[in-house]
Amino acid sequence: MKKRFKAVSFIIVAMMFLSLLVACKDNSSSGGGSGGKSSKVSVGIVLPTKDEPRWVQDEQRFKDALADSEYTTEILFSQGSSAKEKENVETLLNKGIEVLIISPHDGEAAGAAVEAAKKDGVTVIAYDRLITNTDAVDYYVTFDSVAVGAAQAQYLVDQAEGTNVPLYLYAGAASDNNAFLFFEGAWSVLQPKIADGTFKIANSSEAEGLKDKAELSRDEMSKILGQVTTNWDPNEAKNKAQTHLTAAGADLKGNVAILAPNDGTSRAIADVFATDGDITSYVISGQDAEKASIQYIIDGKQSMTVFKDVRTLVKDAMGMAIDILDGKTPETTGTYDNGSIEVKAKQTDVIVVNQENVKKELIDSGYYEASEFTGL
Question: Where do the Periplasmic binding protein domain residues begin and end (predicted)?
Fold first, then answer.
C-alpha cells in the first residue's frame, strides 16, 4: 500500500513539474520581446477602417503575403476611432506580437498607441500614413505622397485651356499627415498657374489670399484645409461641393478643374458637378484606383486616378517585418520628419491612370480583371 502511495505521489509531482515547465514556456513566448518565431502572433496589423475598399483590399493582400511564411499575423480595424485603434494595439500586444504595422486614423493621436508598443519592445512600422510627434516609430512604408499631389495637379494643368479656369480645391482629413503632403505637392504645381492667371480659385478665400506664395507653412495649409477638407468622407465631400456650387457665380462655372483628394471623394464631387446645368465640363483628380472609380474613368465621369499599387506597398511592409523577425536590418530609401524624429522610410512609386492607359496599367498588370468592368 505504501509503495503504491509513493508511486502515485511521484506521478503527481512529475505532472506538476511538467505543468510548471509548460507555463514558463508559454509566458516566455507571449511577450513583445525577442521571443522570435515562438510568438503566438508574430505581426500585428492595424488598419483605419473597413468602410473604404482600399483597406479591405489591403487586408487580403497582407494575409496573402504571409501565406507561405512560418510567421503569423492578425489584422484589426479601427473604424475611424483613435480610441479603438489604441485598444486594437493593446489587444495585439497581449498576443505577443514582435512587429506592429499600423496605418493610423489620426497621425498624432496614434502616438500613445505606438509608445505602448515601443515600451513592450515591439518594432513599429507606420504604413501608408505617418505617425507624428513621437519617437516611437521605427520605420515608414509609403507611397511618395508629395508626388501623388503633384501628379493630380499636373493633370489639371495639362488639361486646362485658356485663362481664369475656375479651380475647386478639396483635401483629405486634417488629422492625416498625408493630406498635407498631398496638398503640398498639388500646391507646388498649381500655384504658378494660379499666379499667372491660368486658374482662378473658386472655393477657398484662404487659398486665394495665399495665391502668390509658392511654399506654404503647415499653419497656412491648415487654414486652407479647414475650408476644403472632406475628412475622406464622400458624404462630406458631396455636401461641400453642393455648398460651393450654390455660392458660385456664373464666372466660377462653365469649364472647371477640380482637385479631389481620393477616389471616394472624387466620385461624390463629380456627381454633384455633373448635375449642375451651368457646369459645361469638368476635369477631376483622384487616387487609389478603386474599382468604382475605374468604371467612372471608363465612362468619362472621373478624369484620372493616381494608381498606388498596394501589392507593392504590402510586399514592402511585410518584407520589412520579416527582415526584423529574422534579425536583419530592413532596406530604406529615405527619411520623413514626423515632428519628433527623422523616420527611416521606404517609398513606392505611383502611376497616373486615365482612359488612355487604364487597360495597360490595371488590367494587363493583373490588378483587376477585365470582366469587372463594362465598356473597357
Answer: 43-328
